[in-house]
Recover the amino acids of this structure.
């Protein structure tokens, strides 16, 4: 009786369901990914899932927490998926395994497990990988129809697991840098934007194929907002800030700064806006705070992309803004019912 | 370089002046640490700590003469608060100094002879009466210190413990269902 | 059409109100035994004024109010008081409380009922009558109504002066107010006019949620029949729209400031059932001895019953014919109600609903997971709090921070727990933190008082010493001045020199314990509150009676 107190009813929502729905919303993007880049991504996702579940279970055991309810909450799976979607699919198997394990063990459980980690685990994993293994992290698959040679799925598997390519094929022949990376390299060579965009890897708005994947994530994200799983604040503020900064630079100097739409549909912008920055655990809890947090991340993303050393900025922007979350939340406490001047303290 | 140094020194001097001025202007009379300690002590004034009341004990702690685990009425929580305040380690009670459940003294009015001895012993003037008249304890003021028990020549004072009732009942800490049984046992051990 | 305002958040739990509105309110049969608690209202418990063995009539006073916030308790039927003792009552603690057990004689014979016209009585008298009729808020808070009925005109916001009738009944399952409005709308409306005149309110708004069309229609009719300028306002169904602060906000757009009462903004809010019983009390002279209660949940015949206060709940539940898989019972609604320790506890003024619970209706929540900061709780909190932060503080017992983040503005509505995907019992943490903080504040106050009294005592002893020394010195001087005349013996002055003569006095006292001394000033009465003085006076009076002596002067010597 002691544990049975009002309210005696509750909404059937569970953490597991929320996480599951978020994963569901990733599916359109993943489907387009497979369509344009081949099924290698599915291998990464599978590897990430297995690693995530295994390390999560092991950590729960070690920390003496009940395994079953936490394993079923899907949060580890989601972390694995997000990491898998942020790194090149044609990477050696150990890359994704090490990255996911790092996410779960260090970024999540060493900070106290579900609900207690200050940094987005998937982005920590990404940051560690890109700092530690920069070379494999730049070998992205070329979209269908662009590469000189295309590997069959079996050949891809062989590469992922034993690192052997078919005779005569070099890694460079089947992979490329991301459109963002390519843009940066060529801008450094003082080529005008127009000319760069004539390269075959660029599509209508941004990179061939990758822009379509972004559309997929956008669709999934809109579903999340419609289903009230995430609020509109973070995506709108993030994309808004990214658009605004990119737009300003583009207006000032169109020859050297690409259109804001290019930024929207490149790299992890869409994934970040709807799936990464919206991670509730590491984001702010107040609506105003969400706007500030996401706008900050949008600005940082642009700055890192345009002026930083890394090709994409979403991950580092997220982590940097994660640091500010407690402060943002403290200063954006909403007004309590019946109190005129904010949360008095 | 030189101007930077100059600016820094000016700032340092200015801040120093402000600090020095406020130290004089806002000087707190008395011993603020002892006041803070006294605010934590339960004010039962029972003397179980070995000092003639809470304030002397507070002074003794402030002067570093007494340990923080000597006040049974304050309970473990009192020790914790003192430990927090003073930045020292928590220390459990020594043997024999266990906190008792809260109680108030009660005078059997039929036996009381009106000797005024308990009245003089009570540290908080919670006993009302006059010579050769029956004495009564104001329950709301009694701290339960038991100092009135020994002086009574006819042993008419008893301590009545205040059990849990509807007025002092508290909501319990919710049981956290996810703690596996083995860790609960380990943590409380 | 009136502009309605919105309050933040709210949830839409399934209503489950239809089953219990299918039949009219019926009178519950007279039980074999009634248990009437003396604490049925907020504030001080009533003081028993009957003795075991007394025969009482229906509506006869058995407990009188003590103190400002208190109310009276009456015999619910005629019969004999057999026991006055501690009995289990409906309280989350499961602790017993003082109750009178009444065995009905079956005649249900009324005590003197004095029907009167409120227009002929001054408001002061009406308030007194309501207090003595035991009228308290029947929505669940059971706050004595008379206290809420002081005129709003004395208020700075006097131009508002709004009386609100709360017929929102936002909690799921409960339908007692709905049925009362459907069937007794006339009484409610007349009662409202009475309360309006007492409050001198300018307007009367009757707020009813839009899921009660019959009640709305009935109230409209009653208002029209009475020819009164009241406004029946349909408000949207959202939990907790029936919370006083929320309803006031919806109807007037005003926010009751944190820590203040509705009166402070010139608004007063009464539950419709309270208004009805206030009307019965004045117009028919019937004190509050029964109320309408919903019996629902896992029962075959859900419905509403007019039951006597003190009826054992088991008898009421039996009327609904509970299904065999019923395993526990809830008093109140599923959002804010409490589990019943047993069904033998009596019906009290606060009991608006009894729900027979079964696993299939109220499944146990899954084990709580950590908070994932999803902010669903904050989105629904009507007090616009950040429950996840409060939870964090309460869980870590960081009470200071919890208070700084407005813990005490939480109305314990349970909306946050309802939506939490981690199924954290948030409200329970808040209740825990609140009662812990309250207790600590009390302890702190007590400690401060003890310190003050201790310091005063030291000061007094010091002063007495000094005075004695001065007296001695003066005496010495006088003795030196007039040596031959002064008698050498020191007079025994029990007031000033207890120490010197203690031994002698004890001996004397033990021997002559019954000896009395008149006109001696008591000690330690210098630093007391009025209440304590009253207490002492009472004790002194008792002594006086016992010893058959005139009461000595208990006025404290003022400094
Ligand atoms: S032991 Fe008694 S006198 Fe000493 S500090 Fe505690 S309450 Fe005060
Ligand atoms: S009445 Fe007795 S127990 Fe109570 S405070 Fe005074 S001396 Fe202590
Ligand atoms: S609803 Fe529950 S999980 Fe979500 S923020 Fe509130 S307390 Fe945390
Ligand atoms: S119980 Fe308190 S914190 Fe939770 S929703 Fe209601 S008012 Fe807000």
């Amino acid at each position: 009786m002691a544990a049975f107190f009002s309210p005696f009813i509750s909404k059937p929502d569970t953490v597991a369901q929320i996480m599951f729905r978020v994963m569901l919303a990733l599916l359109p993007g993943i489907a387009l990914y497979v369509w344009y880049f081949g099924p290698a991504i599915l291998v990464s996702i599978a590897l990430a899932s297995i690693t995530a579940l295994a390390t999560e279970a092991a950590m729960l055991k070690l920390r003496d927490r009940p395994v079953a309810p936490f394993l079923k909450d899907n949060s580890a799976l989601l972390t694995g998926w997000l990491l898998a979607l942020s790194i090149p699919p044609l990477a050696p198997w150990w890359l994704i395994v090490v990255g996911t394990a790092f996410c779960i063990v260090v970024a999540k459980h060493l900070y106290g497990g579900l609900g207690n980690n200050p940094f987005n685990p998937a982005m920590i994993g990404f940051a560690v990988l890109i700092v530690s293994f920069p070379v494999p992290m730049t070998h992205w698959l070329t979209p269908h129809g662009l590469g000189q040679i295309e590997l069959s799925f079996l050949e891809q598997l062989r590469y992922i697991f034993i690192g052997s390519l078919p005779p005569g094929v070099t890694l460079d022949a089947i992979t490329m840098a991301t459109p963002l990376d390519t843009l940066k390299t060529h801008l450094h060579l003082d080529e005008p934007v127009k000319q760069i965009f004539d390269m075959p890897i660029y599509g209508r708005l941004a990179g061939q194929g990758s822009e379509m994947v972004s559309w997929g994530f956008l669709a999934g994200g809109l579903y999340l907002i419609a289903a009230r799983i995430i609020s509109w604040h973070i995506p709108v503020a993030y994309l808004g800030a990214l658009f605004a900064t990119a737009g300003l630079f583009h207006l000032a100097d169109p020859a050297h700064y690409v259109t804001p739409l290019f930024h929207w549909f490149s790299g992890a912008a869409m994934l970040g806006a709807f799936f990464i920055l919206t991670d509730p655990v590491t984001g702010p809890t107040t609506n105003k705070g969400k706007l500030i947090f996401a706008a900050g991340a949008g600005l940082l993303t642009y700055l890192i992309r345009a002026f930083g050393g890394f090709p994409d900025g979403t991950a580092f922007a997220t982590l940097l803004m994660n640091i500010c979350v407690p402060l943002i939340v403290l200063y954006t406490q909403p007004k309590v019912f019946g109190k005129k001047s904010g949360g008095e303290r | 370089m030189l101007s930077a140094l100059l600016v820094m020194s000016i700032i340092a001097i200015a801040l120093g002046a402000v600090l020095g001025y406020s130290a004089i202007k806002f000087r707190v009379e008395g011993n603020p640490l002892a006041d803070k300690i006294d605010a934590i002590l339960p004010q039962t004034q029972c003397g179980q700590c070995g000092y003639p009341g809470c304030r002397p004990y507070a002074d003794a702690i402030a002067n570093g003469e007494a340990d923080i685990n000597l006040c049974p009425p304050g309970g473990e929580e009192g020790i914790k608060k003192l430990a927090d305040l003073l930045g020292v380690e928590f220390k459990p009670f020594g043997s024999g100094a266990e906190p008792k459940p809260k109680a108030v003294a009660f005078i059997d009015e039929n036996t009381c002879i009106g000797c005024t001895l308990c009245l003089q012993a009570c540290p908080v003037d919670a006993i009302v009466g006059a010579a050769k008249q029956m004495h009564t304890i104001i329950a709301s003021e009694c701290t339960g210190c038991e100092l009135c028990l020994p002086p009574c020549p006819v042993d008419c004072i008893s301590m009545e413990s205040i059990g849990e009732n509807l007025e002092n009942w508290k909501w319990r800490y919710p049981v956290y269902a996810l703690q596996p049984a083995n860790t609960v046992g380990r943590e409380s051990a | 059409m009136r502009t309605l305002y919105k309050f933040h958040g709210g949830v839409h739990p399934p209503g489950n109100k239809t089953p219990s509105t299918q039949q009219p309110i019926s009178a519950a049969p007279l039980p074999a035994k009634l248990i009437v608690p003396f604490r049925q209202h907020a504030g001080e418990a009533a003081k028993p004024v009957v003795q075991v063995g007394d025969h009482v009539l229906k509506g006869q006073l058995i407990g009188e109010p003590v103190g400002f916030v208190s109310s009276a308790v009456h015999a619910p039927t005629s019969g004999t008081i057999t026991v006055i003792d501690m009995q289990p009552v409906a309280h989350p603690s499961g602790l017993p409380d003082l109750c009178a057990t009444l065995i009905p004689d079956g005649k249900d014979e009324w005590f003197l009922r004095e029907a009167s016209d409120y227009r002929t009585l001054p408001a002061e008298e009406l308030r007194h009558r309501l207090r003595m009729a035991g009228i308290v808020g029947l929505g669940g808070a059971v706050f004595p109504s008379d206290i809420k009925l002081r005129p709003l005109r004395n208020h700075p916001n006097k131009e508002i002066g709004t009386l609100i009738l709360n017929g929102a009944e936002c909690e799921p399952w409960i339908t007692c107010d709905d049925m009362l409005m459907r069937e007794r709308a006339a009484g409610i409306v007349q009662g409202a006019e009475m309360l309006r005149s007492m409050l001198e309110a300018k307007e009367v708004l009757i707020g009813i949620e839009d899921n009660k069309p019959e009640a709305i229609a009935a109230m409209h009719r009653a208002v029209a029949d009475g020819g009164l300028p009241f406004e029946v306002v349909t408000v949207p169904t959202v939990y907790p729209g029936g919370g006083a602060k929320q309803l006031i906000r919806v109807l007037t757009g005003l926010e009751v400031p944190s820590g203040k009462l509705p009166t402070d903004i010139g608004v007063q809010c009464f539950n419709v059932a309270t208004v009805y019983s206030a009307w019965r009390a004045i117009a028919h002279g019937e004190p509050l001895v029964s109320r309408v209660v919903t019996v629902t949940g896992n029962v075959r015949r859900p419905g509403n019953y007019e039951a006597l206060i003190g009826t054992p709940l088991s008898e009421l539940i039996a009327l609904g014919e509970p299904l065999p898989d019923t395993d526990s019972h809830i008093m109140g609604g599923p959002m804010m109600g409490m589990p019943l320790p047993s069904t033998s506890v009596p019906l009290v003024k606060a009991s608006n609903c009894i729900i027979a619970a079964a696993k299939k209706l109220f499944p146990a929540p899954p084990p709580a997971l950590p908070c994932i900061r999803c902010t669903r709780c904050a989105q629904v909190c009507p007090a616009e709090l950040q429950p996840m932060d409060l939870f964090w503080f309460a869980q870590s017992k960081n009470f200071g921070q919890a208070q700084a983040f407005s813990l005490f503005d939480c109305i314990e509505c349970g909306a946050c727990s309802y939506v939490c995907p981690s199924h954290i019992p948030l409200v329970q943490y808040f209740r825990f933190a609140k009662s812990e903080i309250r207790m600590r504040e009390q302890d702190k106050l007590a400690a401060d008082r003890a310190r003050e009294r201790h310091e005063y005592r030291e000061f007094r002893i010091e002063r007495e010493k000094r005075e004695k020394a001065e007296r001695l010195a003066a005496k010495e001087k006088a003795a030196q001045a007039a040596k031959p005349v002064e008698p050498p013996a020191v007079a025994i002055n029990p007031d000033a020199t207890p120490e010197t003569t203690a031994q002698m006095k004890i001996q004397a006292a033990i021997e002559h314990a019954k000896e009395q001394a008149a006109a001696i000033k008591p000690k330690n009465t210098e630093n007391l509150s009025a209440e304590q003085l009253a207490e002492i006076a009472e004790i002194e009076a008792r002594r006086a009676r016992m010893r058959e002596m005139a009461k000595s002067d208990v006025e404290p010597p003022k400094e």
